[in-house]
Amino acid sequence: MAANDHYGESNEARARRRRSIITFSLVILMLFFAVWYALSYIRADATRDASPTTSSSTSSCDLTPEDVEVNVYNATDRPGLAAQVARGLRGRGFVVKTVANDPKRAELTGPGELRYGAVGEAGADLVDEHVGSFARNLDERTRTNVDVVLGPTFDGLVDKKQVPDC
Asked: Which of 9, 53, 91, 116 could potentially form a cystine with 120 if both were Cys, beta carbons 3.0 to 4.6 Å apart?
């Protein structure tokens, strides 16, 4: 009865049934992950395609410096400029994340450039009030952070008394 143990079923039949169950389980598991992966892209596209109505209708007065994350980059040959400006922005309440030389190595000619995504426009407006009139560069980022890129004619932050109160 060694060949036909377990309810009259042969070892070969049990092995086929076991392989069928394993194969079916793997197919179901792969389908689950494929759907999950596809949904993550659909959600990402929906987030990217969403109109930035909240940021375009949000004025800089609706934000405080504590609401805005900035990265300060030096695109000049003046050492320590980014660190000096970062200290000034921190002193005004901005959340400074990165202080470094400009990773894009842009050749700026004016006082500087603000880089931001569509959802960070209100934050860029607020930063601009503190750094002066910088060129604007709207990029594809989906976060609200703002890059402050300092150019060769930058001569300091705007006097606190000249920054509009809300």
From this structure: 116
